[in-house]
Predict the 3D structure of the following.
Amino acid sequence: MSVNVTGTTKILGIFGDPVAHTLSPRMHNAAFRALGLNMMYLPFEVARHNLEGAIGGIRALNLLGVNLTHPHKTGALDLLDEVSNEVKEIGAVNTVVNREEILVGYNTDGTGFVKSLKDDYGFDPRGKRIVVMGAGGAGRAICWALNRENPERLTLVNRTFEKAEILARSVGACPLPWNDLQVESEICEAQLVVNTTSTPMDLNPLLVSEKQLIYDIVYNQKETPFITAVREKGARIGNGMSMLLHQGVLAFELWTGEKAPLEIMRRALFNVAKK
Ligand code: ATR
C-alpha cells in the first residue's frame, strides 16, 4: 500500500480489543485513495479500561472520526457529546464523527446489514419469518433494523434469556431461550437465520432447507462442518464481509460527506479475503 502522509492528512481509525484482525483499514484507505482524499485510517488497540482516554484523544488529536468495535460499542455511549436517534434506540454505537470537537455517535451496523441483504442477496425482509441469534451490540442493531422492515415474525434467541427479553420488547420480537424446543421449529420455518453471537453458527443441518438464507455476520470465518452441510443442502450462505462493507460505506459517507466508492471498497475487502 503506498502511503503519502502530509502535514494536512486527516486521521481516522478503529478502536477495538482485539483489533489485529480488522479489515476496515484496507477498505477505507482504498476508498480515500480512489477519491483522492488526504485521509488515513488506522487500527488502534484500545483496552476496555482505556476507552475514556481514547475517546478524549479523538478531540485532543483532532481525529476526523473512528469506528468502535468489540468491546466498545456500548461503553462509548456515555462518553460522546451527542448520539443519533438510532443509537438511542439500539443502545450501541459503531461510528463517531468529530464535528469541531463535538463527538457525535451513529450506528451503521443494522442499516448496513439490511443493505447487505437487499443489495447483495436480493432478500427483502418485509413479510418474512426471521430468526436472530444473539442479543449483544451487533444483535441489537440488526434486530432494530430488521424490525423497521416489517417482517412477518422476528424471533430472538439468546443464551442469556433476560437479554433476549429486554431486546425483544423494544424491537417487537419474540424472545426464546437458547435450548427451548420451539427454537427448532422457528428455524425450520424461517426464511432467514442470522447468527450475531461471537461463536460460529452450529445448528443441526437437518433444520436447514434450500429455501433459506443462513447468514453469519462473522467475517473471515473458516468453512465449518455446519457451513459445508448447509451448502450441501442448497441453502444460501450470507457472508459477514458483505455487512462489513455496507456498514463501512455508511460510515465513510458520514465522515467525508462524499458518496463512497462501493465497488472499490468491496474489491479491497474481497481481495484480502482471497489471500
Ligand atoms: P458484540 O457487541 O460484538 O455483539 P457482545 O455484546 O459481547 O458482542 O455479544 C456477544 C453475543 O454472543 C451475546 O449475545 C452472547 O450471549 P450472552 O448474552 O448470553 O452473553 C453471545 N455469546 C457469546 N459466547 C457465546 C456462546 N459460547 N454460546 C452462545 N452465545 C454466546
Q: What stands out?
A: The chain has ten helices and twelve strands. The chain has two domains: 10-107+248-274, 110-241. Residues 70, 73, 134-139, 158-160, 163, 196-199 surround 2'-monophosphoadenosine-5'-diphosphate (CB under 6 Å). The mean pLDDT is 94.
